[in-house]
Amino acid sequence: MSVMYQVFSNMYQDSVSLMQISAKINKLPGIEQASVVMGTQTNLAQLADVGLGDDVKAGPNDLIIAVMGEDAACNDAMTLARELLNTKPKETSNDDITAPKLVSLDMAWERHPKINLALISVPGDYAAAEALKALQLDMNVMLFSDNVSLAQEKQIKTLARTKNRLVMGPDCGTAIINGLPLGFANVVNRGAIGVVGASGTGVQEVTCRVDHLGAGISQALGTGGHDLHEEIGGISMLYGLQMLAEDPQTQVIVLISKPPAQGVAERILEQARACGKPVVVDFLGANAADISRERVFAATTLAHAADLAVALLDGKTSAAASVENISAAQCRDLPTTRQDIRGVFAGGTFCFESQLICQRQGFVAASNTPVSGNQKLADLWCSSGHTLIDMGDDDFTRGKPHPMIDPTLRNQRIAAELSDPKTAVLLFDLVLGYGAAAEPAAELLEILAQYPRENRPLLVAHVCGTEADPQQRSRQIQALRSAGVLVAECNAQAALWASQIARIQAAKKETHS
Amino acid sequence: MHLPIVSIGYLAAQRLTQTGLQLKIHSRFQHAMNFIMEDGHLLTLLDASRYPNLPDAVRLQLPPSWDWREMSGKLAGLDSADIWQPELRLAQAAEKPLHYATLADELGKQLMESDLMLLPGGDSSKRQPLISLHDPLDQLTFQVARLVGFGRGLTPDGDDYLLGYLAALWRWQEVVAIAGHARQIRQIIAGQLVWTNDISAHYLRRALHGHFSEPLCDLLALLTLPASHAQISAATQNVMQCGASSGADCLAGLLHGMRTLQTAL
């Protein structure tokens, strides 16, 4: 029988790791007893008492591993201990000392009674039931899940209203609660602008732009895309608006949605007028005159909504517009055969807004998600004329990851548009933040490198993100610019630039003919 | 890599606003990292998904595979982060500590590896903490010395036990019947911090001044409230979640403190 010990000077390991090491070496055959302790005076005395070494020299910040047993076993134990000390602990290897895993909302609530928000991301068939359970526990709900029927959505939101709780979703992909990005969201400064949005990328665009302008976000609440449907009646947007109106940190409110049902829009705008705080409204494509009223300001684009909100925070009632345009010189090398705008988007609202802007500029386009006045794309997989595609729509994402997570399919479509000799300008977005691809520009640049600049359309992009995002906005922009991409400040500017390129090309063609 | 801040402990928040703050890396773990400041206090960065608020900690939203021993990043959102600040009210003499039986039951249900006898009548092969309200100074000093730095874990069992004991006494520290004992035990522990490691000494030093983790503060707040069994049970579980056996040792110390309070009040 021998005793062996080793002192690891200034060695700190968390207690779970120390217990694991102790348990493992104690179980080795031939080991009588083992001890893994910090080298405090009391522990040194204890080691001596139990015969594990009466001459150990160690201080309180040193780790001691001491074993008693057969010679070979002691050697093996010390070797194993050294290995374990230099190995990453397994994530879930607390042996017998872990608490039971939380497998229901009830268990989570019992363990953490202060919880007041449940984020539900389960298949749509089960989502409504989980949301109702969360509401019964007095939690607010973020329902990431899609494929919840309007009838179920109505049931969930009606219950939420009676319990004074907010339901974000179904199909709510973006929120920022108390500074914490949830779902697809960006790392933005905290501040005094609150956002309620029925569109995930719309909320991302506004919150990021507010951040760029040096202001910050108090809360960004999603409602899900169907909330402003007549059948739902905008329950979540109305309640979100009320919450922000009552929130002392929020000074200016921004509402974002595709155009709601008329009756719903009127209810929202009336509550906005009466809420006592300035409210900026961007119902994409809606007539500004129908929106504006006392303390309610109509925005023409997502970026304008952010600009206006920041201006209002500064006591102004209007925001300066960007005047940067595309010049004919920038299109000099484009052959006149290149006439079409081709937009390939990961963000659905970016596609929607771009269609509106191009249309206002006189370019009616085809799309898988056409805005009023545009046409439905005849063949999803083949663009024709001006075409703007939402690659995040169900058409492309059924059974596949969203292009913000995995841009492979989107990049393939970009390659196809680059190959088309009719493409004058390729318009695309790059969405950053939590949930988005780690290096969204990298793979795209490999594709672009296959197309020499003199033999490809002009490329116009917009990067939705912030400096604090894991992907870092400036780094992505720099990468795109180095590959010859024109990077706009916002989605609206990118769409405007694409329209300007198409107009210049059309004028060139007219001159030649 | 930018690391968004989820919340900041109230003491960390004060520290981070100081100009010319000098931080040196003290220790790195997979999910936590300690900086040491010039005055010997630690400032800790924690994975928010794994750790609750601590007075001196900054909780961060970290990628799942994050490992502080190999990675580093830049804190994001420092100016606008939520600051955690507990509100622990001092108790009146007429208020008795409640829920002892529920707490003891929760501790008894969980099998814990500790080098201490965690409840009276427990495993007699373990060291039994023997601290009593009316112990003379030398006896009390001897008992504390048997515990400081004693046992397994990064924060040794004895330290965690003493921290729990201090926590129990904290809310009643101004009640005449307990004030003298509370003051005495704080003085003794303060004098013996050199006998344990830096990290454990830091938590004990903070406890001497009433600074505890969020789960412990939550539980202390409930001790004078007629809370439901489920609430007490959940709060107790949250305390026991800390570390490997630290939470259980701390809860055992807290129960010991409650027994002392019952004797005094």
Helix content of chain B: 40-55%
**For the residues shown, what is the average pLDDT of chain B?**
92
Radius of gyration of chain A, rounded?
30 Å
Our count of helices of chain B gives 9
As a whole number of angstroms, the C-alpha radius of gyration of chain B is 18 Å
Distance between the termini of chain A: 101 Å
User: Structural class of the helix and strand makeup of chain A?
Assistant: alpha/beta
Biggest sheet statistics of chain B: 7 strands, mixed
Percent strand of chain A equals: 15-25%
Q: Unreliable runs of chain B, pLDDT <50, ≥5 residues?
A: none
**Overall strand count of chain B:** 7
Strand order of the largest sheet of chain A: 10-9-11-12-13
Rough outline of chain A:
globular
Overall mean pLDDT score of chain A?
91
Uncertain residue segments of chain A: 91-98
Distance from first to last alpha carbon of chain B: 54 Å
Q: Largest interface: which pair?
A: A-B, 45 and 59 residues
